[in-house]
Amino acid sequence: MGLQEGQKVNVEFCRNVPECYTVNVEPLTEDDWEILELHAGYVEDNLLSQVRAVYHNQVMCVWIHGKTLVKLVVGGIEPKSDFAKLTNKTEVIVAPKTRRPAPVAEDNLNTSSTIKTQPSMKFRVAPSLEEEVDDLSVYIHPDSLESFDKIPIRVRLTRLVPIFLSNRREEEQQQQQEAEDGSKASALFATLVVSTNVPSKHAWIGSVLRKTLEMKDFDIIKISCIDVKKSPVGSLILRHFIAPNGPSSIIKLGLESSQQQAQQKLQFETECTAAITEWLCSHKTEYVISQGTCIDLKLRGITERFLIQLGTPKNLLSSSHPLPDEEHFFVVSPNQKLSIEFGEDIIKSSSASKANNDHEVVTLGGVDKLLNKIEQYMLANLSERELKKSLSVPTSGGVLLSGTHGSGKTSIMKHIMKSARRSLIYTMQVNCSEMSDERVPVLRDLFQKWLDEASWHSPSVLFLDNLDRLIPAEVEHADSTRSRHLAELFVRMVSKSCSRHSIMIAATSQQQQSVHPALITHHILSELCHLQPPNRDERKLILEAIMSQGSDILKNSLPNVDTVMVASETEGFLAADIKAFVERTVHEGAIRSIKKRMNSTTKEEEDKTLKLIQADFTKAREGFVPSSLRGVKLQSSGVNWSDIGGLNETRKALLETLEWPTKYAAVFSQCPLRLRSGVKGPEILNKYIGASEKSVRDLFERAQAAKPCVLFFDEFDSIAPRRGHDSTGVTDRVVNQMLTQMDGAEGLDGVYVLAATSRPDLIDPALLRPGRLDKALLCGMPTTKERLEILQALSTKMKLADDVDLESFAKRTKGFSGADLQGFLYNAHLEAIHNSIDMETFKDTTKKEEQIKSEFIMNGVNKLTLAERGHISQRLTMIKKEISRKPVKTEEKQEIPQQKEAEITNEYLEKSLDSTRPSITIEEYIRLKSIYDEFVTGRTGELPSGEGAKGIGKRSTLG
């Protein structure tokens, strides 16, 4: 405004100030434009907090972060007015103000070829699939030449950087230029080659060009056609990239050290000259060398990197001359000799030594069907998006692969990502576990960064490993605000990006339910795949894949190992368990080989190559617990079939249902019919909604991991009663989940359900229908023959007298159950033990105790005073101390005679029979028999409906 200090001004209040719809501004200088371009977002968010009124030719002063000042000149205001007010609806249009290019000196025009830029095209860098690709050439499809006026021979190649990466790339380049005494080329010139093998709209780039411009697969590049006039070819100056602590940075003192160092340097330059001459002569056609090209030369078995600078006949560049700013190149004919010089070494930056993480993924075994399913879905999803848009059909969502820890989810998805790259699909992997503790604003920026990168390289697949760690499902009785916020934010951002670009989300999780359900309901993840534990055939394929791609020991041992037997012995093993098991087997084989050499006395020529044998796998299996069974309480009963008497039909049915499918698995796998699902106070019931169902699911999943497995539910009527009788609804939900688990579409493979109850009429009828607990076995009251078998089985661990007749006792124990008969024998055994103890020992002890008598006379009851009580207690304390000080005389050790095993005679059995009564009365037996007959023999098929009784005086709840 031109105001001076001390000048008087007149201030008036303006009423009815119009709101500005559009304002056109221009940076005052080029510096203001560059600063504004870098901080456009900050100015947009904070402009109204600094400027609200505008007028023509106003110079607006905007402070950025309170440190940097940007000046903008107001050009035009709409609606037209002398002044206006800025609001949230005002559109601010900034006109660019770029710097004018510096004039080019005439000397520089003579040092390089004259370049005239022609039309350009954008291409996508494709992975090179051909073995022989010239490292200084660019390959494109013939259809891409239609955009050029004429077929070019030389082209200019640049890498395009998106806006969201430009600031970061400028910082990296600045750091790299500060670390390195020299700069790589930002643009290169190359020979164009046409090939029908190149995919359309893609380009194959030579290895030297890719390394120089730091190109990656599926980057976007711009190829420009240029007119070239040949210029004289000068010399090549090589500058060696060395580590920060390389040999050139170390100063050695002394004449001998200097001479030795000079000799080593001369030898190194000679080897470099021979290597680069060989590289130049390998080109059979005319080639182009650009200023700032980086090449790798193999010297003494080590790959070294060099920077090429070009010199001209007029002014040969040396280490003392700086690198020219302009781009120029040499067109070199085959077998043309070039003079080679060496400049100063360049210190590598940290970014220049980053390793390439694009390693080969090993072949996986046993998951071919799952791989084909996901790959076909991925290709169909990304290739048919244009067709679906034209037909107004909603696009499909991503893929969610769930499985337990160690099942191989990440390896499978990496294998799929590798195959996707062969189909020209860009892949990006993110480990969500590393950022699960980040704040929501940081995660929002990360989401945007991932989606921007995927959009720039589309079609692309964004692989989120362990997504359930970042966006977990909401948990009851816990604050789930963060998870809900992240899920809504992720759904909104992904939906917006996927609608504009060809992007697909792929994720892994422990369980499908562990990921927030909003990602599935909004179709961000549509294809849900679950990785089941491998069966025997799949474990065999996994074992063969691990050994065939492992070390030489495993490769040489594979023909000598019975993989079918090893797979049969590793039931319940996951892919990670099999890999750890193989490593453990190698250690066992090494230990066996060392022991064999130490024990051998003869010096015979032995094969020094270690080969695994079948015994090594057996030894490694001992004590190895797979990950799915760690922390799981597995019970193996010590009772054999021979310990059970009677119940022949029940034992036969259990053998057929439980033991045969495991023992003869190959035969039962060919069975066309679905096998029985099972035979008819646990930790399942929980008052919280959903907790009981989760317990049932976890129980069956643990059983599936430990297959073959028997799930035994004792007192089954307590957890699966009739639905509608529970006021809380907990058991109703448990019954529904049990029906889902037992009657699934795939059935229970290797898991058998065994339930025991004394009241089958209280169990929900739906669980007793065919396909579930359809086989009812009755452990009824034993007959005379069965009672004899029970007594014989129980008496095998006891010593009976020769004259004992168990058959007579079996006839006299009518109405006794198996438990009653066991109690009958145990009581007789206990009676025999008591009578077999030497009573003389007790008599002697009793006599000794009777000799120690305490005589006292009680005249009457007198109440003691407090003083008398204290005196007596003090006296007793002194007596105890004196007794404790006296040495205790140890009696002579007597040899304890060996007790003979108690023998059960008819006398003891008779006493036990007189004191033992049946646990079930006749009335109770008749009532239970009528109930059991309905479920075993007398069932008519009309099962109760499960509804509660509605009559007056009827019970409606379980007692």
TrEMBL record:
Similarity field: Belongs to the AAA ATPase family.
AAA+ ATPase domain residues: 395-783
Please name the Pfam families in this protein's record.
AAA, AAA_lid_3, PEX-1N
Which reactions are catalysed by this chain? ATP + H2O = ADP + phosphate + H(+)
Question: Cellular component terms, GO, for this chain's entry?
Answer: cytosol; peroxisomal membrane
SUPFAM superfamilies in UniProt: Cdc48 domain 2-like, P-loop containing nucleoside triphosphate hydrolases
| Gene Ontology molecular function | ATP binding; ATP hydrolysis activity
Q: What is this protein called?
A: Peroxisomal ATPase PEX1
- Matches recorded under InterPro entries: AAA+_ATPase (IPR003593), AAA_ATPase_domain (IPR050168), AAA_lid_3 (IPR041569), ATPase_AAA_core (IPR003959), ATPase_AAA_CS (IPR003960), CDC48_domain_2-like_sf (IPR029067), P-loop_NTPase (IPR027417), PEX1-N_C-lobe (IPR015342)
- Does the keyword field hold Membrane? yes
Q: Cite the PANTHER family for this sequence.
A: AAA-FAMILY ATPASE, PEROXISOMAL ATPASE PEX1
Set out the biological process GO terms recorded for this chain's protein: protein import into peroxisome matrix
Q: Give the residue ranges for region: Disordered.
A: 939-959
Compartmental location: Membrane
Keyword match Protein biosynthesis? no
Q: Which UniProt keywords apply?
A: ATP-binding, Hydrolase, Membrane, Nucleotide-binding, Peroxisome biogenesis, Protein transport, Repeat, Transport
Which SMART domains does UniProt cross-reference here?
A: AAA (SM00382)
Q: Principal localization? A: membrane
Superkingdom, natural source: Eukaryota
